[in-house]
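Message: Just now I want nothing more than another pair of eyes on a protein record. I am handing you a single protein, as its sequence and its fold in token form. As I understand it, each token names a local backbone shape. Take your time, and here it is.
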Amino acid sequence: MRYQLMTAALAATVALQFAGPAAATDLEVTHWWTSGGEAAAVAELAKAFDATGNHWVDGAIAGSGGTARPIMISRITGGDPMGATQFNHGRQAEELVQAGLMRDLTDLATKEKWTEIVQPKSLLDGCTLDGKIYCVPVNIHSWQWLWLSNAAFEKAGVPVPKNWNEYVAAAPALEKAGIQPLAVGGQPWQASGAFDVLLAAVGGTDAFLKVYKDKDAEFAAGPEVAKVFKAADDARKMAKNTNVQDWNQATNLVITGKAGGQIMGDWAQGEFQVAGQVAGKDYTCLPGLGLNEMIATGGDAFYFPLLKDPEKSKAQEVLAHTLLDPKTQVAFNLKKGSLPVRGDVDLKAANDCMKKGLEILAKGNVMPWTDQLLSQDTQKQKEDLFSEFFAKQDMTVEDAQKRFAAIVGSAD
């Protein structure tokens, strides 16, 4: 995949075609981007939409997606829809689409040739139900990253690790220096996500897909996944004294050198950027934990509830176009720490970590993630299990793996 600059003339021509009305139309957009880096990124979307002559009314909902999604869904099903709303790529809005509550974007997608500009193809597949497109993917976010504080390892007197195994080996030195080895916040999705990353990195891509795509409970109970639970046991021991709740609080421990590292998605880059830290100098990033360099095609997309107001419906179309505009894609993703969904934009300003992600993406080393493979009910069961596993050091890995295999066996 090549990343090149779209010509200014083309961008200007497309922008003129979607110029907003003389009088601004307010459009409420709900999302859960409230950390410092996320707020800086969403401001780029708002600025681009406001430039069309419409007005982005920010509907940020504090907390994680797990907190925000029920509120968003309740409003849509209760007859109080917003103009647009964020969900992750995959099945989170599936029931809303099936209920006929979301706008069909197929005509716009065909007109603007989304199937040609959105890469990889699986991103639009995640927006498609019964052959119709219902959302606009805006980024590619991958969970499989280990973020390391260079200052923490310098203080501990050990080299910055090159992979997960070296990181685990360095944990005693970090503890001796008074540094938290691994930061994992108290939100259940963080512990669950960390396990999923370990499954993909330690177990490998095939193991990950056997578990979450094939839903092979026998394999999930077997020796290959037992190795992953051993790594997860190492992780919870390294993380046991984190004592923070939110993911960005855990990231801040790494930024300030109070923790050696964090398993977190590439959205953590936004926090490093806001703090003025430089990739490769102040912090190190290891895609796939340095063991399996793959990029999951997860991320964020916007859906558009059906509205009765024709002016707001028109503004929805303008916003959908704006989200995929080349300039918007660059400005937003540079702040968000994610990768663009367009393969034809200029990313010369990308930092070292983003460049690593782009190189992996260019090689085609991509895989689906749990949001695309599992229902929300299964995700919740998994989150409950790993939240308990990380919180209770006395839970045996054998018991945890047995419960995990049962969840996989009943997954939908």
Notes: The first strand starts at residue 26 and ends at 31. Confidence is low (pLDDT under 50) at residues 1-22. Residues 223-239 form the longest helix (17 residues).
